[in-house]
Specification:
Blueprint: H1 3-7, E1 8-22, E2 27-28, E3 32-33, E4 37-55, E5 63-67, E6 70-71, H2 76-89, E7 96-104, H3 115-132, H4 141-152, E8 164-167, E9 181-184, E10 195-199, H5 210-215, H6 223-243, H7 246-265, H8 276-292, E11 297-300, E12 306-310, H9 315-326, E13 335-339, E14 345-347
Parallel strand pairs: 5-7
Antiparallel strand pairs: 1-4, 1-14, 2-3, 4-7, 4-8, 5-6, 8-9, 10-12, 10-13, 11-12
Bound molecules: ligand DP6.
Length: 349
């Protein structure tokens, strides 16, 4: 390595968003989940991040974050927090200054959480830098990147793997951990090609941040029941995924989404994040499933948008249904078409 290369290091990763099927809602300690969760890794909704590290003689860390080429200070606190965690693991980082250049492939104001794709892309960049500085073994790379992503945003630790990911210790899943996500492979191949059409019901900012939302479970009257229901739902869902039972899959995934919102609606203070259009879309989806015998399902994040999940071989019929009957519930008629994807990719700088 030349002197110049050792004082400036550049690395770039693209990382996807993910959509939880069994939800993570409630945490304790340092970003440890109160129950295990499982998600589809998405394909098109991605964040691209470049990390430029410069050797710093002043030993005062500085981090500049550029989003879509604009210097942004509002992202800094979360990024600083991630670097605090990263420095504990990789002390050499304290003698560098950082420039982060990032952009999303999905519209910024779409209400789609960018923390999973954003934090996972940044954690991958930091771990690549640590690898280049020989502060990390190649064999520990993915585990360390997932662990670091989790410290930035819990759900981000599930964005690093192809297909489906599990985060949180679960007795029947070997290798599962509260500290990092793992790839989950024991699934019928049809689920690896599932489609996710995201109805953008309300494009504005969410009215409750996840951080505030997770806190609402502290002292929540239904918290313990929720954590045990999530464990049961994991078992039921794993069984469907193995067998390829798509109708049962739909029932469990929908119950999970509604339970997440039921928890928010019964918190103190409470939050109602579904809009009338969210409920109207849900009603249509359930009717369409019954009338057409097509296992289309919905799930929700902590917001008003609806994720429509369905098998690839029903794509033509479901997309027609979305266009004819659901698009009118979306703000400006906008929806995004995504599918299960293959995880992050390292980019050329
Ligand atoms: C509803 O991962 O955004 O999307 O750890 O505080 O950053 P923090 O929370 P975050 O929570 C995601 C919650 C969820 C469900 C899920 O993705 O499992």
């Amino acid at each position: 390595m030349s002197d110049f290369e050792s004082i400036i290091h550049e690395v770039s990763w693209q990382s996807p968003s993910n959509i939880a099927l069994v939800k993570y809602w409630g945490k304790h300690g340092v970003q440890l989940p109160s129950n295990p969760s499982i998600s589809f890794t998405l394909n098109s909704c991605r964040t691209k991040t470049k990390l430029i590290s410069r050797k710093n003689d002043l030993s005062v860390r500085s981090i500049d974050v550029y989003v879509d080429d604009q210097l942004k200070s509002d992202f800094k606190p979360k990024v600083e927090k991630l670097f605090d965690h990263a420095e504990r693991r990789f002390p050499f980082l304290s003698s560098y200054s950082f420039e982060i250049r990032t952009n999303n492939t999905f519209p910024h104001s779409s209400g789609i959480a960018s923390s999973a794709s954003g934090m996972s892309a940044l954690a991958l960049c930091i771990c690549s830098f640590a690898l280049a500085q020989e502060a990390l073994e190649e064999s520990d790379f993915w585990k360390s990147a997932s662990e670091l992503a989790r410290l930035g945003s819990g759900s981000a630790c599930r964005s690093l793997f192809s297909g489906l990911s599990v985060w949180g210790e679960h007795t029947s899943i070997q290798g599962s951990s509260d500290k990092y996500g793992i790839q989950y492979d024991d699934v019928h191949p049809d689920f690896l090609k599932y489609q996710d059409t995201i109805l953008l019901i309300h494009k504005g900012q969410k009215s409750v941040s996840s951080t505030v939302g997770h806190k609402l479970l502290e002292g929540h009257p239904f918290a313990e029941i929720r954590f045990s229901e999530a464990r049961n739902n994991m078992d039921l869902l794993l069984d469907c995924l193995r067998k390829g039972d798509k109708f049962e899959f739909a029932e469990i995934v929908e119950k999970e989404a509604l339970m997440l919102h039921a928890l928010m609606m019964t918190s103190d203070p409470y939050f109602i994040l579904m809009q009338p259009e969210t409920l109207a879309a849900i009603k249509k989806i359930r009717e369409f499933r019954k009338q057409n015998n097509i296992p289309v399902a919905f799930t929700l994040d902590a917001g008003a948008n609806v994720h429509v999940l369905y098998p690839e071989d029903t794509k033509e019929k479901v997309l027609k249904f979305v266009q004819d009957e659901l698009a009118s519930f979306c703000e400006d008629g906008t929806y995004l078409c995504d599918s299960v994807g293959f995880g992050p990719t390292k980019e050329k700088c």
